[in-house]
Amino acid sequence: MLHLQICQGTTCYVMGAAQLASLAAQLPEDLRGRVRVTGCRCLGLCRDGAFGGAPYVTIDGEVLAAATIDSILAALRARLQEAHP
Amino acid sequence: MRLHNESDRVKREVLARVARALFAEKPEALDRIPLQMRPKGQPFSRCCLYKDRAALRYRVMAALGFRGEDETDELRPLAAYAAAVPTRTRNPEPFISILTEGCSACLESQTTVTNLCRSCLARPCVGNCPKQAVHVKNGRAEIDRERCVNCGLCAKACAFHAIVQVPLACADACPVDAVGKTADGLVAIDHGKCIRCGRCQAACPFGAIMACSQMADVILKIKRGRRVIALPAPALAGIFPNDPAKLTGALLKLGFAAVYDVAAGADETARREAAELTERLRAGAAFMTTSCCPAWAETVRRHLPGLAGYVSHTPSPMRLAAEMARADHPDAVLVFIGPCAAKRTEATFYGDPDHVLTAEELGAMLIAADIDVDACDPAAPTRAGSRAGLRFAVSGGVAAAVGAHLPDSGAPKPYVISGLSPKTIRLLATFAKTGKAPGQLVEVMCCEGGCAAGPCSFEEPARAAARITAQAAG
Ligand code: FES
User: Fold this and answer.
1) Is the pLDDT score of B465 beyond 50?
2) What residue numbers bound the domain in which A59 lies?
3) Mean pLDDT across the stretch B121-144?
4) What's the CA-to-centroid distance between A67 and ligand 1, angstroms?
5) Does residue B24 surpass a pLDDT of 50?
6) Contacts from B139-142 at CB under 8 Å and sequence distance 24+?
7) How close, in Å, is residue A69 to chain B by CA atoms?
């Protein structure tokens, strides 16, 4: 089971994390039951002017910057592919 | 639903970078923003890196509150614009600015026959056109532009989906037909018709319709030690995913000297509006409309003068909250903060509060100051509103709050218009014409769902409304 964490800190939320929350409710068919989606507090990645990369998400700890629903789904599928080619 | 979109992200990043430069008192950093956001060797979104940077320069100008249209010297440093901010005595009005570099000159909304047309025997496109604008020529349907009224019936009737209606995002979003095109195909706004609702701005996929922000004025006044007071709209409690007490704490941390919740003004609006309604009905009026939505006020002024006599004279929650803050602090700088575009025009018209910030601009300021709302200490506003005041942000909430001040039996019936559109505006016009409405208190909200769905926000309207409803329920 992969763990997708969507940062809910202010920077990420303002920069687009609000639009990523729907992922938790409606994962596409092929990912259901294979990904756990949670929110988390500011990951600390946005500080000191690094807000340009927000919203940040992590997949099993690995950071994905400027995340969009598309880029998240692609990263999740690539991971699952690697694990079970 | 507000879709995640790159154009919003770029807009907010520009605002945050501008805020950061101003908070740090490093105006020279402003001129670097286009280069930092589009560095050499990285992908670009328009035809080339240089056009992207040119567009970003105009976004920085708008973030500083200047219209690209007024530019006389293309080499004037952005830092020079920032230096001019403190000398500005009026807020930009109209506040919309067109980014010519961004406008892609999309097709004028029209109905077009594609080459899927089979020139069939039935020809429902020809038969169903109410204007006899469709003819078949050379084995394909053709639409006579002079006659077509863009009703789309031919497109609906075609069995092959061969006819499409090409949308024009900005113009289609406008409820009052104020958005059109120049001879070059670029977007043009008729400011005489425009009700300031901000929908075209939110709808343009190129981010080519921008608002001149007052954020720089607010930041510089905070930096110069002025007493700057925040008047957060009830909608903010739904737009930020945080405990509202922490949001108050965040505003104080940002440098605001005090916080007066606009919900406190809303309570007063509701009380006065109930008294006004009772008085008007007693005097024989058939109905009264609410007055708090500034885009609605502009709609009446510009498009429905016949309804002017039916609109409540009670000041909006923003104005009454400003009165409360002004009474306590006569020399302070008052700043309304909400998801609304049109509040800028209302504030400029009445002269108080001094400035209007959007939820997005507040978000950008928090980002720039590295303030995470969740990590802030909870704080209480100087004036807080009731739960009924909070519900002003959701359609039906104003009517409910006013109703709560009226007697239980024989109370006036509310009628709620949630969202101005050509259709609801036509309906409202019939109220003016006939002097009758389906209720005695007509609540009008320009944004469908109410202020929680305002255009200058980063939250999904449904989620913002749900949060407010939950908080108001306790
Ligand atoms: S808000 Fe997401 S990393 Fe700070």
Assistant:
1) yes
2) 2-83
3) 92
4) 12
5) yes
6) B140/B113, B140/B115, B141/B113, B141/B117, B142/B113
7) 8
What are residue A39's DSSP bridge partners? A6
B394 strand-pairing partners = none
In angstroms, rounded to a whole number, what is the distance separating the alpha carbons of residues B247 and B232?
Answer: 10
CATH code where residue A8 lies: 3.40.30.10
Which helix (H) or strand (E) element contains residue B330?
none
Q: Which fold has domain B110-166?
A: Alpha-Beta Plaits (3.30.70)
Residue B291: HSE in the Cβ half-sphere, 13 Å Cα cutoff: 25
Measured between CA atoms, the residue of chain B closest to residue A71 is B4
A51, two tokens: 């807000």
Rounded (5°) CA angle B350-B87-B102: 80
What's the pTM? 0.92
Predicted confidence at residue B261, as pLDDT, reads 98
Whether residues A13 and B240 touch (CB distance < 8 A) is answered with: yes
CB contact B3 to A (< 8 Å): yes
Q: Tell the CATH topology of B227-473.
A: Fe-only Hydrogenase (Larger Subunit); Chain L, domain 3 (3.40.950)
Whether B370 and A48 lie within 8 Å, measured CB to CB: yes
Q: Tens digits of per-residue pLDDT, B150-166?
A: 888 999 999 999 999 88
CA distances from B456 to B89, B193, B208, B247, B257 (A): 24, 21, 15, 18, 24
Q: Is the CB of A13 inside 8 Å of chain B's CB atoms?
A: yes
Q: Which residues contact B173 (CB under 8 A, 6 or more apart)?
A: B179, B199, B200, B202, B203
Residue matched to tokens 């007493």:
B227
Q: Does B35 touch chain A (CB under 8 A)?
A: no
Q: What is the mean pLDDT of residues B275-280?
A: 95
Q: Do B9 and A21 touch (CB under 8 A)?
A: no
**pLDDT digits 0-9 by tens, A24-59:** 888 899 998 999 999 999 999 998 888 989 999 999
Please count the structural domains in chain A. Answer: 1
Give the pLDDT confidence score for residue A81 in this predicted structure.
Answer: 87
Quote the minimal CA–CA distance from A35 to chain B in Å: 21
pLDDT in tens, B77-96: 999 999 999 999 999 888 99
Give the distance from residue A11's alpha carbon to the nearest chain B alpha carbon, in angstroms: 5
Q: Which residues of A touch B363 (CB under 8 A)?
A: 10, 13-14
